[in-house]
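quick q for whoever's on today - can somebody do inverse folding on this one?? i tried earlier but teh output was garbage lol. tokens:
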């Protein structure tokens, strides 16, 4: 006779279970819901720690586990890897390596900077060094304000690009400082001031882009902890870099050798940074990712995942020049800065189409010019509707012919939208597309299409005629 199956343990209030007179198993979970450790409470009041399978309890094993936990808690978010996105570890690995290269490079550049300020030069004065320091500081502050004003809204949508550009700015500043001792006094002023300005651009770009990337990595309201652990990682790597860099600075003093070493370190630094941002798989749609995703859907009917799109992204340079089905560049898409900007054209009247909480303005075709497709969003537009507006603009370009532009036939077809009386059915609004995007892991609760101050449109009909 088969033994009766025991019922599954049920969860209940701790006090109720303890007072029931039965053995109670208690599990401790982290914020992501994964078991950290288990306890057994016996009716006698004895509490026993349940060791995971395969864990031994000898002194060496316990010490090793304790040290691993200390290191993990010091440098990784609690609940890792379940408390962060899947691309966190790869990015942080490359980010730590690039920080190591950057620390050594900065030590070599710092020596040149001190020489540029006059340290060790009998002909240099303290006043000159002070004035140069003041000028560098002033240049840095002005550059920070100007760059934040001009590019502040662009950094979050293109966080990967600006994270890479930040280190490109920084490494350029290193080379300017490295060459400053060999320049004339005015040359030193120009080189060191420009270098400080570039370092200011690095600070703005790196700070803002890291914040955007941290928001992507955080999964369980652990953004603050994630930033704190990243600071710990950078500090530890910086300490190692300082130790190695101290020996390097002492051993290598020949100017030619320093330049060669700096070049190698900078290339290593930029390559690690490139691999780091390349490993990030953003789940929000900016202009480039939306274009890559939807053009692939138009070509093959396949919806790409964030990981697949990330492999096709351009990190440094990308412009929204959109191809038609023949692969010819026919149109440039942008979000309008104003209604006047949306309706502006030097080639004739603009044709305007309405969508779901957005309008699209298309300029007429012109010789040797790409058609301009401008999107203007309505008030209270949802992120998903903004993405749909971009998809429709891409599909308009997809249907165009190179020299014909947005013809009356295309205009009629896109005004019908859901109708297939023209032998073509719109794909940007396919229900299957949007369902597949959610299944693939795309976040449609937000959008990163806007790289300038957001503009929303509200229109109403006036009762009086204007003559």
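ok took a stab at it. sequence:
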């Amino acid at each position: 006779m088969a033994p009766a199956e025991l019922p599954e343990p049920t969860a209940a209030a701790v006090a109720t279970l303890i007072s029931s007179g039965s053995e109670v198993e208690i599990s401790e979970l982290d914020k992501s819901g994964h078991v950290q450790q288990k306890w057994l409470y016996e009716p006698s009041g004895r509490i026993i720690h349940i060791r995971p399978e395969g864990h031994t309890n000898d002194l060496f094993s316990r010490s090793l586990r304790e040290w691993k936990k200390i290191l993990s808690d010091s440098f990784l978010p609690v609940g890792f890897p379940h408390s962060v996105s899947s691309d966190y570890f790869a990015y942080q690995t490359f980010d730590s390596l690039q920080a190591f290269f950057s620390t050594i490079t900065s030590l070599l550049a710092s020596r040149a900077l001190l020489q540029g300020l006059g340290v060790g030069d009998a002909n240099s004065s303290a006043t000159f060094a002070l004035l140069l320091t003041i000028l560098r500081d002033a240049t840095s502050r002005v550059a920070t304000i100007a760059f934040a004003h001009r590019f502040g809204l662009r950094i979050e949508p293109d966080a990967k690009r600006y994270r890479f550009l930040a280190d490109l700015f920084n490494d350029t500043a290193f080379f300017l400082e490295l060459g400053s001792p060999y320049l004339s006094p005015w040359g030193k002023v120009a080189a060191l001031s420009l270098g400080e300005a570039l370092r200011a651009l690095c600070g703005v770009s790196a700070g803002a882009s890291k914040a955007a990337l941290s928001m992507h990595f955080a999964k369980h309201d652990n953004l603050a902890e994630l930033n704190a652990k990243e600071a710990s990682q950078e500090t530890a790597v910086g300490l190692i870099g300082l130790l190695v860099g101290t020996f390097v600075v002492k051993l290598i003093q020949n100017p030619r050798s320093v330049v060669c070493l700096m070049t190698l370190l900078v290339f290593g630094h930029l390559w690690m940074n490139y691999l780091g941002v390349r490993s990030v798989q953003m789940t929000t749609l900016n202009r480039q990712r939306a274009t890559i995703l939807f053009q692939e859907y138009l070509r093959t009917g396949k919806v790409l995942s964030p990981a697949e799109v990330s492999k096709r992204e351009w990190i440094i340079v990308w412009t929204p020049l959109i191809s038609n089905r023949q692969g010819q560049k026919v149109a440039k898409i942008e979000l309008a800065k104003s209604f006047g900007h949306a309706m502006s054209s030097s080639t004739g009247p603009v044709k305007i189409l309405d969508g779901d909480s957005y309008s699209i303005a298309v300029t007429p075709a012109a010789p040797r010019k790409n058609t301009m497709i401008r999107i203007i969003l309505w008030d209270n537009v949802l992120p998903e509707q903004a993405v749909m507006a971009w998809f429709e603009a891409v599909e308009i370009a997809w249907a165009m012919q190179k020299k014909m532009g947005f013809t009356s036939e295309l205009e009629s077809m896109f005004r019908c939208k859901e109708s297939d009386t023209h032998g073509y059915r719109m794909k940007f609004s396919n229900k299957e597309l949007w369902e597949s995007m959610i299944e693939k892991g795309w976040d449609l609760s937000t959008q990163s299409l806007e790289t300038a101050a957001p503009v929303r449109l509200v229109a109403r009909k006036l009762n009086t005629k204007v003559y």
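fwiw The CA atoms of residues 55 and 397 lie 61 Å apart. also The first strand starts at residue 24 and ends at 29. so keep that in mind when u check it
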